[in-house]
Structures are given as C-alpha cells and as structure tokens.
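Purpose: get a first structural picture of the assembly so the mutagenesis plan has something to point at.
Setup: two entries, given in the order below. No constraints added.
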Amino acid sequence: MTLITLSSPHHRQSQGVNRVMLQVLLALAPGIVALCVFFSPIYLVQLALAMGTALLIESALVWARGRSATFYLRDLSALVTAVLLVLSLPPLVPWWITVLATGCALLLGKHLYGGLGYNPFNPAMVAFALMIVSFPVPMTTLWLAPNSGLVFMDALAIVLGQAELADSISSATPLDYYKSQISLMTASEIYQSPLFNGIWPAGWLWVSLGYLLGGAWLMWRKVFSWHAPLGLLLALTVLSLVFSLDPDQRTPLQLHLFAGAGVLGAFFIVTDPVSGATSRLGKFLFGLGVGVLAYCIRTWGSYPDAIAFAVLLMNFAAPFIDHYSKPRTYGHQARHRGYK
Amino acid sequence: MTAQINRDTTQRVWPLVGGIEPKENKSLSNQLSIGQLALPPQLVLPLSQHIGVAAESLVTVGDYVLKGQIVARSSGKISACLHAPTSGHIIAVEPRPIPHASGLSNPAIVLQPDGLQQWRERDPWADWRQRDKQHLLARLSESGIVGLGGAGFPTACKLSLDANSIHTLIINGTECEPYITADDCLMRERAQRIFQGIDIIAHLLQVDQVLIGIEDNKPEAIAAMRACLPSHPAVPTVIKHFPTKYPSGGEKQLIWILTGQEVPSGRLPADLGMVCLNVGTAAAVADCILRDQPLISRVTTLTGLGVPQPRNYELLIGTPIDWLLSQIGVAQPPERIIMGGPMMGEPLANASSPIVKTCNCLLLPTSKELPLPPAPSACIRCGFCDDVCPASLLPQQLYFHARSRNLEGLAQQHLFDCIECGACAYVCPSSLPLVQYYRYGKGEIRQEQQQQSKSEKAKVRFEHRQARLAQEEAEKEAKRQARAQAAANAQAAKQANGGSSPLDDLIKAAQQASATATQAPPSVAQLQTLVDQARTKLNSANDRLVNAEQDMPDNVAAFRTARDKFAEKLAKAEADLAKAQQETNG
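Result (structure tokens, whole complex):
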C-alpha cells in the first residue's frame, strides 16, 4: 500500500493568486464607473482593447517561453496590468498607443525578467513612462475635460484615428493646468476654469473617491496592508502643507491628492507587491519615497503628474529598503539591518 | 543564572504575533470520552521514539516480559527507556517501518502479547513527598516519559535541571493544531491526575509559580481544570486562557503569551528560568510516581472524515496502525495518514508502522476535506506570509534564498528561528511548499557546517604535522652539525698532536683527490636553484607562522623555530651563491 506523503502543512487556505487579482479588478470598478460617468464611456473601449491585447500577448509570450498558457493566464495578472495602464493613459489616445503600451508592459515590464513575480519594475508604470517619453504630445493633450459633451461615437472615431480632437474639447489634466497657469493667474482665477468645481478638481474628485472606496475594500479584505498607501498619501500631504500652503504659489494639497494619480497610485500602484518592498516598515518607506519623489517632480520637475516616474525610481530602491526594514525576529534583541 | 521572578497571579496574556485561524474541526473527535481498544496481536516498539540517542535493547528473541518491564535502556544523556506495554513474548528484534515520511525502517522490539496483562512488581509511592528527590528523579528517568505534545524530548532531562535556576513551570494545554483533541479530552477527564503530576514536577524543580495555558476553544477543559485547581496549592498556580490562534501552542509562542518574555534565539526556556511541559506529560509523571506505571500508553486522537467515528483512544505504545484502523472500522485503505495535525503532522509512508510515544493524532482526511495542493506558481511577494509568521520572519525572503541555495542569506534572515509551523504556506496564494524549502535550507546549512568543521580539523592536523616535521628536520640538522663539529675537533686535536703517520697522509690525499674528481664544485646555476628553493621554503614557513599566530597561539613557538631555520638555510645558500659568482667572475 502506497500512501501519499507530502510535506506539511496539509491544510491550505484556498485563496489563489487569481483570487487576489480578481479582487483588485473588482476594486477598480467604482473608479472606472466614475471615469465613464464624468469623462467618457470611451474608457470601456480602451479597457476592452487593452485587456484583449494583454491576453493575446501574454499567451504568445508564455507560449514562446515554452510554458502552459492556460496555467499562466489563469492568474489574471496580465489583465490587472492592462487595466491599470488604461487608467493611467489619457482616454483619447489612439488605439495603437494602447496596444503598444500593453505590449511593452508585458514584454519589457514583465516577461523579459521571467514573468510574474520576477519583475523588478511595475509593468504598467514601465509602459506609461515609455509612452510619455516617446509620444509626449498625445500623452499630454488627449485628456478630456469633465462633462465635455463629447459624443461617444466621436470619441471612438478619435481613438480609431478617423477624426481629430477639436481644440475646444481637448484639455490638460487639472494638475497640468494649475501648474502652467499659476505663474500667470491667482488661484481663485484658476478655480474659475471648468476643470474645477470650487477648489476641487471636477470629476477627478469622484474618480479618486471611487479608487479610495475600492482601496478601502481591498484593505478590509486584507489583500494589502495600509502601510504603503499611508506612506504615499502622508508624504504628499506633509510636503503640500510645508511647500504648497499658499495656493497662489504652488499646487495646493487637495489637487495633489485628488486631481492626479495620487489615490490610484496609493491603493493600486505602490501596493504592487512584486516590485515593492517587503516588510510592513519597508512598504511604508516605499510609499513614503514615492510620495516625496512624486511631489518633487510635480513641483520642481517638468512632468505634471509623476507617480509613474516616482514608482519606477522607488522600484530601484526596493531591494535596498528590504535590507534595512526587516522586522525584529522573535528572540532577537534588535532588528537586523544591512547586508552583513 | 539568577532567577528573576515576577510572580504573575493575574489573567494577563500577551497576544500572539502573527498566526492564523484555520478551521478547527475539533468537535469531530471530542464528543465521546476516551475509548479503549482490545489488545493488539502484536506490538512494535521502535528503539528511537524520542529526541536523542536510541535506547539499547535489553531483550532477545524468546524472552518473556511482564507488563511495565523495561525492555530497552536509555543510552547517553538525552535518551529514554522503553517498557513492555503488556506481558508476552519477544518474537523479534529487527528493523521495522517507523512512522515517518521516509518509510524507513529502524530497529524495533516486537512483542507478542499473551493476553494475561501480567504486571511486573509495582511499588506505588503515595507518600512521594517523603521521598528523596534523587529517588523520584531516578524513577522518572527509568519511566520512559518523553514530551507527549509531539516533540518527544525526554522529560527526565528537563526535571533534573538545577532547581535553583528554574522559577516557573509552564503547562501546555493549548493544543492549537486543528483536529487534535487528545489534550482537550485528557483535561476534561483526568484533570486530577494532571494536577498530581504538576505537584510532583513543581516539587522537583522548586518553582515559584505554575502557569497553565489553554486556548479558549476548550471551555469544558478549562472548566474541568478550574474545578480541580486546589484552593491552596503548594505553589501559586494560574490557569490562563487566550484567544484561539494557531500556533499559540508552540513552546516559544506559549511562553510569550503567558509571560510576555521571549526565549532568546538559539537558547532554551530554561535560560529564562522556565520549564514547559505538556498536560499529557504531567499526567504521565503522576502515573509514574503514584501508580508506578511507566509510559506504556498514550491518548491519541483518531480523526478526519476518513474515520467512521472520530474519537480519542488510550492506545498502547507499539499498536500497529493498520490493525488499529481495522478496529475502528476503516475498511478501505486510506490514501493519506497524517501523524499529528494538519499543520505540522508527519505524513506516513507505511500504514504498518506503530503508534509511538509522540503520536498525539492520526488524521485520515478525505481529499475533499484537505485537498492536495495545486501546482505552485511564482511567488508574487504579496507578504501574506510576513503577516502570519509567529517569529516575525520574512518567509518569502527565506524562500528566495532557499531556492537559490544562498546559505548566507538564509542565515541572515534567521532561518533557524523558524519553527516550521506552516502558517506561511497555509496563506500562500501561490501554494508554494514553503516549509519544505526551509527544511531543505536548514539541512544544507547543517551539512555545510559539518563539512566546514571537518575540513577545519583536517587543516589543523595538517599544519601540526608540518610543524612536527620541520622540528624533526631541525633537530636532525642540529645533531648533524654537532657531529661534524665533533669530528672536526677530533681532527684538529689529532693534527695538533702531530701524530699522523705517512700512511694516513697518503690515504687522505687519495680521498681528497677522488672527492674533487667526483664532486665538482656546484655551478652557479645549481646554487641559484638552491637559493630559490630555500626562499620558497622560507616563504611558506612564514605563511604558516602567520596562520599559526591567528589560529593556534599554542604552537607559534614551534613555527617560529622552523621559520628561523629556513631563514638560516637561505642565508647560507645566498652566501654560497655570492661566493661562487665571485669566483666565476674573478
């Protein structure tokens, strides 16, 4: 009689990687709904395009690496990458940018390093950074103002390259607009723009609140801890309170938090476990670093939103942070730091 | 060590770090009282059922043994005796399958019961308090009692610790593994005996307090223990209960929960002045002293949905598992048998292996109940494992290091503080066999260390030999020079006497002529080689001296003498060379 002998433990929770990824996708839904309501349902087209491309490219890459496509597609990580990418891109970018970006994310951001789990950089952010460096004009001008009245079919035509975006509808993001105008106008004049609703970024506030809701749900589900999001939001808040207290000088706090990718970054980008730091303290430091870099690039650099570059820079730092943020092991006097 | 006592009479507990809350499934097996089974047709007693050195068999085939008679004696400091669980004949002393995942066989004594249950002569010590401590300890160390919680550390070793250094006795009734209810039922039914055992142990170790820890999922056991708690115990005793969370029952974790202290890494609870014993062990101590009954049986949970009627049984040590399963109505051969719980239990390779002293549970899960793990996927560093590790390790970092066999990295991440509780693997969404990686890592490091100490020893031996040879050489050289000196002196004295005969002169002249003819003076090139050789030797002697200064301060003198000799030789060779060069040039 042969008995099955397997290493303990024999009991396992049934939560797989795909369950984790599925929950992340679900948590993004409120933000996506807000984007469709306040900006344009064209987001759904971009999402479908990116997700379809992601599935195809992921299958091809997995096949090319001689592995089972069904096994690797099941983890849903390619879809999460595609969705996060679309949520970072301007809604009206031509279809080929979406396709190219998705391909870059999966190939250059993930499979080149060995696939899920081995990528040192956040794949969506790698692709976003590549796109904004390669195609700066479409990547900064194809945003929509909230409630712009652009008909869905017109938006579709623009995305498919059949029509040009009228200048009257084209718009910058509130962060971009504020930054470029604050040297010419006072804050109260800027707030008159249709991009704002009082001092709040119109539309974007609701999108950010949608992400916040999804993020809170994921934390409640214990998909990730509060450390990295708090680090990012804390850094943005403190730096804004120190350097941006006067809204006539620099972009104020509420725009840093709610106008750009702040909340999306806090709950869905810096919480990417693969490319982030490991321990709780490490995650907090990682988020903090992203926040500090993002604020600095937004304020003194040339990019209006900077979460992607901040995340990529901190991805470089993550292994280093790991060496200095280990928790104190049971029975040891102090936490172990460093490489030795 | 000076005992620091902070007597704790409160119910205060410190929360477990990390931990998981798997489905308990304890109500499967704790509904019925502890059952008994018929006498098995055969009892198989492996000589090693404990941590430490295997016992030595005292019996040969054909011997008749009485119930409770010693059949194998402990050998070495950490070891345990073995007794006949019933009377009968020894029918074999041979390797038999042991309950282990490897399916390996180990030496075992096989006993065929005669059904008479004939006890050896017994001497119950109701008056144990009047007895000398040495006598109590002697009986306990003959009793074969080992830690019954699952670790199997010989209990007598713990009880013979210096009583001055121990101040707290911790009794572990946590039983945090799912499914297992052996301790639960023991506490419910035999709380009195557990307290008798605690009394004896507290007396032996002269402790100042007894802390009993029970998880709060065992209200009946807590109530039964409370009811038996003497109103004026000899030693202040507190029963603490705490939230159910795996692995609260790990020794280090329980000490933290009950006292808020951590056992320093690589040390023992005794270093904190504490001794930790399982409730079942305490009951066995009472049996040994009060009834003169050695460890010949234990309470084992037979559970899982593969068992028709899960229940606790008092089983004789050595009961063959396949016979046992047929007795409790397991008709089909199971596909898995786990000895212990679902988290840390050992999967058995062979159902014919026997029940041993550490076997607190036999779990027969159906594949629906505890499904086989799916194929592992890549680690996504989600950190779920970091959150549940009770030792605050970073399991996924350990995994990466183990996977790439980075032993240094493993040590840096404190691999040896891992208690292999399996909480990390339980939550892993990639279903990685993490604990297996840690066992592999530990094995590799141990092997590396063994090899290192081996080669270290070989190196020291080699260097000693080199030094010895050099010294011998130096002594020979000294003797040779002394002889040459003596000969020269004698010659000189002879010449001074002027008594040399013409014949002597003739012989000497002939000898000199032949010497010059056969032994031409060495060429410059030859001398150069000699100088080079001497220099190499000096260099290596220098190296050895430096090594010796670092590693073997005792032998530095010998190495220095050797080095000086080589230096002398080099100087001589160089002088010869210079002279020869001068001659050729001149």
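DSSP finds 16 helices and four strands in chain A.
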